[in-house]
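2024-03-11 09:14:02 INFO worker-7 job=invfold-0412 stage=load source=structure_tokens
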């Protein structure tokens, strides 16, 4: 997918980064498929590709991946209102964008730009950004391969009228879905063009984000500061880069969402059936995985 480019060499480097090879990955996928057969509450839409993508996002740790796969189906069911009508998202017409950039950085990270495109507060609704974000997350699970996501939040054009529509509960639910259901590893949140009321903005972020993620926020006074973290050429032309313009990339994402319309429609029903969940899955962190799982190695972060 040219909107989420990953070269064979980059994929090889990612696997080397996690010290895994294709044979090990296939073995892990088979272990998880065997585990899934004992989980009647999970739907039959679990593919090898989805398993591999969740494995990647969880550093190829089998037990953690089982937990996150369970989260993927259960949390999307819990927040079903947020995953409804994803197929109706039209990226180029949204007031705020959630735009993955097409090239991985030298650190094998996927950059994502979040910014207001239509400054009229009357056209702005945070739920629209939530659905845009989730639709992109669904597509990324099909194609993307990276070691983490680095978000560039450009606050240019944000006013207090926009912020009055920021619902911390919805933002928290979005953060939970992104991290715990889609297993997206946010390696940094780079903030640009913060307004004079940035303290109010940060206060809402602190309510909505986990402390670990909040601590990864970096405020940049200018583009030169951003370039110290993100190589200039990997950005859009609006930020001095060479990967295209935001409007052109958004139009391409229009086509991507349209071409995945059926997939996104079906994803609404692809959630866990909680009444079929095995009764012994009670552990707070891993359900029954901590008891019945298959551990290959001990890894301590």
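2024-03-11 09:14:09 INFO worker-7 stage=emit residues=301
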């Amino acid at each position: 997918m040219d909107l989420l480019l990953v070269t064979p060499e980059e994929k090889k480097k990612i696997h080397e980064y996690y010290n895994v090879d294709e044979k090990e990955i296939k073995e892990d996928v088979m272990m998880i498929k065997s585990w899934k057969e004992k989980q009647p509450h999970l739907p039959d839409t679990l593919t090898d590709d989805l398993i591999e993508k969740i494995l990647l996002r969880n550093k190829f740790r089998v037990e953690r991946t089982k937990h996150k796969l369970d989260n993927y189906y259960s949390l999307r069911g819990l927040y079903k209102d947020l995953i409804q009508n994803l197929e109706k998202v039209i990226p180029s017409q949204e007031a705020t964008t959630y735009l993955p950039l097409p090239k991985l950085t030298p650190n094998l990270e996927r950059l994502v730009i979040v910014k207001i495109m239509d400054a009229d507060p009357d056209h702005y609704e945070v739920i629209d950004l939530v659905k845009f974000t989730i639709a992109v997350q669904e597509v990324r699970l099909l194609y993307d391969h990276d070691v983490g996501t680095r978000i560039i939040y450009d606050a240019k054009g944000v006013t207090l009228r926009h912020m009055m529509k920021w619902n911390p509960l919805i933002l928290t639910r979005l953060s939970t879905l992104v991290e715990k259901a889609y297993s997206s590893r946010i390696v940094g949140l780079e903030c640009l063009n913060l307004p004079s009321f940035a303290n109010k903005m940060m206060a809402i972020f602190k309510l909505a984000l986990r402390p670990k993620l909040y601590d990864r926020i970096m405020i940049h006074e200018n583009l030169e500061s951003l370039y110290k973290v993100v190589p200039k050429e990997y950005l859009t032309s609006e930020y001095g880069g060479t990967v295209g313009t935001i409007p052109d990339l958004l139009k391409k994402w229009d086509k991507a969402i349209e071409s995945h319309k059926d997939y996104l429609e079906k994803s609404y029903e692809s959630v866990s059936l909680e009444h079929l969940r095995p009764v012994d899955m009670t552990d707070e962190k891993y359900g029954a995985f901590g008891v019945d799982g298959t551990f290959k190695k001990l890894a301590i972060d």
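2024-03-11 09:14:09 INFO worker-7 stage=report msg="Strands lie at 96-100, 110-116, 149-154, 186-192, 217-220."
2024-03-11 09:14:10 INFO worker-7 job finished
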